[in-house]
């Protein structure tokens, strides 16, 4: 240990030097390009052409649930097994593995919520060239061509998607190392036994290339004992010019073509000061891509947890708008097409093709595979105040008091790594946080909560209980030589628990029990950082790929690590309350399915306008692939924002799902009241707007939890046929009904918002000014402006009595904002539950509010559910109304009463005064 | 008259009691100075004058007035405020949003009249504590004032003492100045005298002495100088104690080992007279008693001048030191003068901090490394005395912790 420390000290010093040197950009040299990643380089060297793979139709087996057949590579005679499933909900699953791999190849567990239910496939026709299978109704078919092998998914006469049409299917079969295979008589015997599958002659043609059996990046050597194992497949998308998804990248919402640079990389990495607008890998990876055009939306889910690169090319990418127009006029244009190619370092090909056809179909299809957004406690939808670090208990108390003094609501105050006793998670600094329960009780008295960080790297210290238990249970990830893997992180030398193990995760979860996690209470929640995992002295600041998780290499599971940490932590928070309370856990690393365990944020951004801007496409991209609970550090993590940027960031963050301010240790303090009374007022107003809308936000989370639809969504999701929306990323929708165009330009005097929908009306939520849809609207702005519009035809519930925290507002009355569309109708929902337990599964209020023919009524959508509320309806504001002569309220006991109202003729706003009915009751309101 | 008044008062009280809860609801959350706005009438005028509403709508849990004045006792208005009467303690306003939020804000529990929060009236206890605290503060303040008075007296005395010291030093310096001039003059005279004598002597030597010098050097009187003779009689001016080396002697004789008179007059004689590097052992100057006396006198004058100069410099430095110290702002009545030249220590975790007011602050870690944290109270004449006062308070607290 001592010698290790000594050996590592210079590394740490060097690292600190880099850290403190203040060069404000990622050091790209620390991270691999495709050329520096040997499998990517090898695979990318393959050019489109005729595929060497041939389908052996005589091996085809078709059962009720699946089709299997063998593929053979005519170059090396290695056989693959293709499995094809038709899944419920209009999806097709294509699985390709080696027919007889030398040893098993990794298949990703735990990400799918269940084995996806299948539907029968039927054979439509077959000849020596291939087979045609029916995908159920709607004339959807799969054509499997034998020579060369390719799959085409058809709808009527149109090709929706083709697989291996460019011949880039590649499967690096597992093989014996040449120098060892000669000396291994067992292996030779095997070859003799199966001469027809692997003839000697064919095998000798294959040459070892550099990097196949060992690869070095900077000072790190990857031993690669299993040799090359990459897989790759291409997908063609005719008629598609817009593809989205595959987060996490600091890039535009609409993915770019990658022909002139590196592919998009998916490899969870702790990137120090990441750069914007490029395809470099970041903290999380969701291998899901959406393809969209005005007719159809499709999706590709590439279920592989190894390092993955995605190439995108397009036949229209180089063309100017004018060129495209010319093509169109001359009718000479080839169909626009986007080609995509996925390359992974190991594992198998297991791909889910989601056939839509609408964006919402895609969300429900993907949700049926990996689950939906965890339904958070209501408080977590409020405002979070974080900083690295709040120094001690007095500091926490002072900041808490500051919010009261300045009348700004908040729900959670956060503690970063400095709260621990020497970066030993689950402990408290004995001087600075000597009485954590006292502190937590103080917050609880104000109905507020706290989040403390728990990272997965565990200090190697024989006086640390957590470390001793993990070591004694042999729960640590092992290095290639079988010892406990040790890396350098915040505490110095650290071990990394093997979260891929169920027993490890169970044990970890048990550590959150109140009697295990000393100083914890029910209002303490958790934050998982550094779970890529971050290893300061590892290759690319992460773990060595040849580290071992039982039988599997870290290479196979890398992108799953953060997912599992998040899963185990969320489970711990559930268990500590006996399964009663909903957890809230924030994670930095994630994978497909991470939405089931809580929130994510976009990592260590910077206090720059460009970072504010990119928070929108980054969270939109995550929402498209199921991860709705997304936010960026308000104010920017690195550097110090000027007040204008800080205010604008609060205004933007108030309208994004996860709303947390955070700041680096070295930056000056930036609590909302430190920038003069004017700016305090601006920030207060932004946070208050968030709190008035909490009923609407909470409803969005409930719907995301039920349907998998994103909360923060690109406009094209709701207006899929309007190409003007396809690349918009400076504005977004919350649910269907609120359109937000935050001000993200320094010194802005105005913004131009696109209001979609040619038959829509949009109402400015602040002025109630009415605007027509399908127009670009210039909106002059001042420092207090947050351009937000409510869609005509919607009803939005708010609570306008903003209090200290969301819990303080539980029993408050609602105000309903009814915005009429041109048909003078509107619809909305109201959802109420206890706000923090799993009882919502049975105990809740869910009502449909609808306005038509001058009658506004509340109808129970969940008659079987039981919940009662003290909340009532205090006000109804109808936008775009005409003046009634009287307003009559009819309650469920049949009583009718006249209600007072106020009418503003200049804005056509009718305000119904204090109708007073219970929010959970049936009622109707008649305008006469 | 008096009776009539009492009766009407009684009637009013009865009426108030009869009207019961409605009236108390109307008056909830209002300070006595604002009660005039809420006199029961048919209508209520929002305090900002913006609107008239029926009086029933005051405190009916719905916000009608832009300024929130119709709902002083509920949480209905976003910009409203609620008055905690807090009988027995201090009254104060809270934002309306804290009314019935389940958290006890007013010590009289008046803000949580319709919530599940179990608030107890703690105003009397708080008042007691507050009064005790204020009394304590008063005592401390009195003690502090006494202490301050004492420090002022000490400070004034010390200040006067230092001023007197300064004046004394200045007097001494003036005396020294006069002495200094006298000594400078005397030294100059002695030096002039010496110079004149030396000039005469040198001329005599030049005319008469080449033969006599030759003879002096020619120890064995053989009419020729040898290497040994030169080594015996000549020395280097800087190193009188050392013998000339043979090589040096040979060099002085122009490379030969013998030298006769004519040769001596042409070469070595000039060297001895013009170049001041070689001289005859025991120095020919000693020969002239006048010269010697003049020389001694000059030396004596120089050394006494030097002594006076040193004394003057010392005094000047003391004066300058004292002036710098006196230029520091020790507060309007010199109450912080006593802090000068004192140091205080405080241990925080592994660090020991040493604060020497008007001088410097250092931080010493347990490992022994000392870091200067600057001189926050260093001689900064423009430093506001308020800052010093704050520092002094800190120091007093510091002292308390030490005690």
Automatic annotation (TrEMBL), chain A:
Gene3D superfamilies: Glycosidases, glycosyl hydrolase (family 31), Golgi alpha-mannosidase II
Location, primary (coarse class): endoplasmic reticulum
Enzyme class: hydrolase
An example Gene Ontology molecular-function term: carbohydrate binding
Domain (Glycoside hydrolase family 31 N-terminal) ranges: 83-311
UniProt key word Lipid biosynthesis: no
The keyword Ion transport belongs to this UniProt entry's keyword annotation: no
Biased composition (Basic and acidic residues): 177-192
Source organism, top-level taxon: Eukaryota
Stretches assigned to the Glycosyl hydrolase family 31 C-terminal domain: 708-796
One GO BP: carbohydrate metabolic process
Signal peptide: 1-25
InterPro entries according to UniProt: Gal_mutarotase_sf_dom, GH, Glyco_hydro_31_C, Glyco_hydro_31_N_dom, Glyco_hydro_31_TIM, Glyco_hydro_b
Region entry Disordered, spans: 177-211
Keyword set, alphabetical order: Endoplasmic reticulum, Glycoprotein, Glycosidase, Golgi apparatus, Hydrolase, Signal
GO terms for cellular component: glucosidase II complex; Golgi apparatus
Residues covered by the Glycoside hydrolase family 31 TIM barrel domain: 374-698
Compartments, record wording: Endoplasmic reticulum; Golgi apparatus
EC numbers on record: 3.2.1.207
Catalysed reactions, semicolon-separated: N(4)-(alpha-D-Glc-(1->3)-alpha-D-Man-(1->2)-alpha-D-Man-(1->2)-alpha-D-Man-(1->3)-[alpha-D-Man-(1->2)-alpha-D-Man-(1->3)-[alpha-D-Man-(1->2)-alpha-D-Man-(1->6)]-alpha-D-Man-(1->6)]-beta-D-Man-(1->4)-beta-D-GlcNAc-(1->4)-beta-D-GlcNAc)-L-asparaginyl-[protein] + H2O = N(4)-(alpha-D-Man-(1->2)-alpha-D-Man-(1->2)-alpha-D-Man-(1->3)-[alpha-D-Man-(1->2)-alpha-D-Man-(1->3)-[alpha-D-Man-(1->2)-alpha-D-Man-(1->6)]-alpha-D-Man-(1->6)]-beta-D-Man-(1->4)-beta-D-GlcNAc-(1->4)-beta-D-GlcNAc)-L-asparaginyl-[protein] (N-glucan mannose isomer 9A1,2,3B1,2,3) + beta-D-glucose; N(4)-(alpha-D-Glc-(1->3)-alpha-D-Glc-(1->3)-alpha-D-Man-(1->2)-alpha-D-Man-(1->2)-alpha-D-Man-(1->3)-[alpha-D-Man-(1->2)-alpha-D-Man-(1->3)-[alpha-D-Man-(1->2)-alpha-D-Man-(1->6)]-alpha-D-Man-(1->6)]-beta-D-Man-(1->4)-beta-D-GlcNAc-(1->4)-beta-D-GlcNAc)-L-asparaginyl-[protein] + H2O = N(4)-(alpha-D-Glc-(1->3)-alpha-D-Man-(1->2)-alpha-D-Man-(1->2)-alpha-D-Man-(1->3)-[alpha-D-Man-(1->2)-alpha-D-Man-(1->3)-[alpha-D-Man-(1->2)-alpha-D-Man-(1->6)]-alpha-D-Man-(1->6)]-beta-D-Man-(1->4)-beta-D-GlcNAc-(1->4)-beta-D-GlcNAc)-L-asparaginyl-[protein] + beta-D-glucose
Pathway it works in: Glycan metabolism; N-glycan metabolism
Family assignment from sequence similarity: Belongs to the glycosyl hydrolase 31 family.
Entry protein name: Neutral alpha-glucosidase AB
Upper classification of the organism: Eukaryota, Metazoa, Chordata, Craniata, Vertebrata
């Amino acid at each position: 240990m001592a010698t290790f420390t000594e050996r590592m000290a210079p590394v740490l010093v060097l690292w600190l030097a880099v850290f403190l040197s203040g060069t404000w950009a990622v050091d790209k040299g620390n991270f691999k390009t495709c050329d520096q990643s040997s499998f990517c380089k090898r695979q990318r060297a393959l050019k489109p052409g005729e595929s060497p793979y041939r389908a052996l139709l005589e091996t085809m087996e078709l059962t009720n649930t699946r089709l299997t057949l063998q593929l053979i590579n005519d170059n090396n005679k290695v056989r693959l097994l293709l499995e094809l499933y038709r899944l419920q909900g209009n999806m097709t699953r294509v699985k390709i593995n080696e027919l007889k791999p030398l040893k098993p190849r990794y298949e990703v567990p735990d990400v799918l919520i269940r084995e996806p239910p299948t539907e029968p496939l039927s054979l439509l026709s077959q000849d020596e060239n291939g087979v045609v299978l029916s995908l159920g109704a709607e004339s959807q078919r799969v054509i499997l061509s034998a020579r060369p092998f390719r799959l085409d998914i058809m709808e009527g006469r149109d090709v929706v998607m083709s697989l291996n049409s460019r011949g880039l299917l590649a499967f690096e079969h597992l093989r014996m190392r040449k120098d060892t295979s000669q000396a291994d008589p067992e292996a030779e015997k095997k070859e003799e036994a199966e001469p027809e599958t692997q003839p000697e002659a064919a095998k000798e043609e294959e040459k070892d290339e550099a990097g196949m059996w060992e690869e070095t990046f900077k000072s790190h050597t990857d031993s690669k004992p299993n040799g090359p194992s990459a897989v790759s497949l291409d997908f063609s998308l005719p008629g598609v010019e817009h593809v989205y998804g595959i987060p996490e990248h600091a890039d535009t919402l609409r993915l770019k073509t990658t022909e002139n640079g590196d592919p998009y990389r998916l490899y969870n990495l702790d990137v120090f000061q990441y750069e914007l607008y490029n395809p470099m890998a970041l903290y999380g990876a969701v291998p899901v891509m959406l393809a969209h055009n005005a007719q159809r939306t499709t999706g590709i889910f590439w279920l592989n947890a190894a390092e993955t690169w995605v190439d995108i090319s397009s036949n229209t990418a180089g063309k100017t708008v004018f060129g495209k127009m010319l093509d169109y006029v001359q009718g000479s244009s080839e169909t626009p097409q986007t080609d995509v190619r996925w390359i992974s370092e190991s594992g198998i090909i297991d791909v889910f093709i989601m056939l839509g056809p609408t964006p919402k179909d895609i969300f429900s299809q993907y949700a049926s595979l990996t689950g939906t957004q965890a339904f958070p406690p209501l408080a977590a939808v409020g405002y979070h105040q974080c900083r690295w670090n709040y120094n001690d208990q007095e500091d926490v108390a002072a900041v808490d008091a500051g919010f009261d003094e300045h009348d700004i609501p908040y729900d959670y105050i956060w503690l970063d790594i400095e709260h621990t006793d020497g970066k030993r998670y689950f402990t408290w600094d004995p001087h600075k946080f000597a009485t954590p329960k006292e502190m937590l009780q103080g917050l609880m008295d104000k109905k507020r909560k706290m989040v403390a960080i728990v990272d997965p790297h565990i200090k190697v210290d024989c006086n640390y209980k957590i470390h001793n238990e993990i070591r004694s249970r042999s729960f640590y990830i092992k290095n290639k030589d079988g010892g406990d893997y040790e890396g350098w992180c915040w505490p110095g030398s650290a071990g990394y628990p093997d979260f891929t193990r169920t027993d490890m995760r169970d044990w970890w979860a048990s550590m959150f029990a109140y009697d295990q996690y000393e100083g914890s209470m029910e209002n303490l929640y958790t934050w998982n950082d550094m779970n890529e995992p971050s290893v300061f002295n590892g290759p690319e600041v992460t773990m060595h790929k040849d580290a071992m998780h039982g039988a599997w290499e870290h290479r196979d599971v890398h992108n799953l690590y953060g997912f599992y940490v998040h899963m185990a932590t969320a489970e711990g928070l559930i268990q500590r309350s006996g399964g009663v309370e909903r957890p809230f856990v924030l994670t930095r690393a994630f994978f497909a399915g991470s939405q089931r365990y809580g929130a994510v944020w976009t990592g260590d951004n910077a206090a720059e306008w460009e970072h504010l801007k990119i928070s929108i496409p980054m969270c939109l991209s995550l929402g498209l692939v199921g991860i709705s609970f997304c936010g960026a550090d308000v104010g920017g993590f690195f550097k110090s924002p000027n007040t204008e940027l800080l205010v604008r960031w609060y205004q933007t963050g108030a309208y994004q799902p996860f709303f947390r301010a955070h700041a680096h240790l070295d930056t000056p303090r930036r609590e909302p009241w430190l920038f003069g009374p004017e700016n305090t007022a601006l920030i207060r107003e932004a946070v208050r707007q968030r709190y008035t809308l909490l009923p609407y936000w909470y409803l969005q989370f409930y719907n995301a939890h039920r349907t998998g639809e994103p909360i923060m969504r690109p406009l094209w999701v709701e207006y899929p046929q309007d190409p003007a929306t396809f690349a918009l990323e400076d504005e977004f929708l919350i649910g269907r009904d609120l359109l937000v165009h935050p001000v993200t330009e320094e010194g802005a005097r105005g913004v131009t918002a696109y209001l979609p929908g040619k038959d829509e009306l949009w109402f400015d939520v602040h002025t109630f000014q009415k605007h027509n849809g399908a127009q670009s609207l210039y909106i002059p702005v001042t420092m207090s402006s947050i351009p937000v519009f409510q869609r005509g035809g919607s009803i939005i519930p708010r609570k306008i009595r903003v209090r200290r925290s969301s819990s303080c507002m539980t029993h408050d009355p609602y105000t309903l904002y009814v915005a009429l569309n041109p048909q003078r109708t509107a619809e909305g929902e109201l959802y109420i539950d206890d706000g923090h337990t799993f009882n919502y599964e049975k105990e809740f209020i869910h009502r449909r509010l609808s306005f038509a023919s001058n009658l506004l009524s509340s109808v129970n959508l969940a008659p079987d559910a039981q919940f009662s509320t003290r909340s009532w309806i205090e006000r109804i504001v109808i936008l775009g109304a005409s003046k009634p002569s009287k307003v009559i309220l009819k309650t469920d006991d049949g009583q009718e009463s006249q209600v007072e109202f106020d009418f503003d003729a200049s804005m056509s706003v009718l305000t119904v005064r204090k109708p007073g009915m219970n929010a959970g009751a049936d009622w109707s309101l008649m305008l006469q | 008259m008096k009776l009539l008044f009492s009766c009407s008062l009684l009637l009013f009280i009865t009426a108030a009691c009869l009207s019961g809860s409605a009236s108390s609801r109307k008056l909830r959350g209002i300070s006595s100075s604002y009660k005039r706005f809420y006199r029961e009438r048919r209508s209520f005028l929002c305090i900002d004058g913006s609107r008239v509403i029926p009086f029933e709508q005051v405190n009916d849990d719905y916000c009608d007035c832009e300024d929130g004045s119709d709902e002083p006792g509920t949480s209905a208005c976003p910009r409203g405020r609620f008055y905690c009467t807090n009988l027995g303690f201090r009254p104060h306003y809270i934002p309306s949003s804290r009314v019935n939020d389940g958290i006890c804000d007013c010590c009289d529990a008046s803000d949580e009249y319709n919530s599940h929060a179990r608030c107890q009236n703690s105003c009397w206890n708080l008042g007691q504590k507050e009064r005790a605290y204020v009394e304590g503060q008063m005592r401390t303040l009195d003690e502090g004032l006494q202490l301050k008075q004492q420090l002022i007296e000490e400070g004034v005395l010390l200040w006067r003492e230092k001023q007197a010291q300064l004046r004394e030093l200045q007097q001494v310096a003036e005396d020294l100045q006069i002495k200094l001039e006298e000594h400078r003059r005397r030294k100059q005279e002695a030096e002039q005298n010496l110079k004149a004598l030396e000039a005469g002597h040198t001329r005599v030597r030049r005319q008469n002495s080449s033969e006599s010098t030759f003879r002096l050097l020619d120890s064995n009187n053989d009419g020729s100088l040898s290497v040994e003779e030169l080594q015996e009689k000549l020395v280097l001016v800087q190193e009188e104690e050392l013998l000339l080396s043979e090589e040096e002697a040979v060099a002085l004789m122009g490379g030969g080992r013998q030298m006769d008179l004519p040769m001596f007059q042409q070469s070595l004689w000039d060297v001895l007279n013009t170049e001041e590097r070689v001289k005859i052992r025991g120095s020919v100057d000693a020969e002239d008693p006048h010269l010697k006396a003049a020389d001694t006198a000059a030396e004596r004058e120089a050394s006494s001048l030097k002594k006076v100069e040193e004394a003057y410099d010392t005094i000047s430095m003391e004066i300058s030191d004292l002036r710098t110290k006196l230029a520091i702002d020790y507060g309007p009545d010199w109450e912080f003068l006593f802090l000068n030249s004192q140091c205080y220590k405080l241990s925080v975790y592994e660090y020991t901090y040493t604060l020497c007011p008007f001088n410097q602050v250092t931080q010493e870690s347990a490992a022994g490394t000392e870091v200067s944290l600057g001189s926050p109270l260093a001689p900064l004449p423009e430093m506001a005395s308020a800052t010093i006062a704050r520092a002094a308070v800190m120091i007093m607290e510091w002292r308390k912790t030490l005690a």
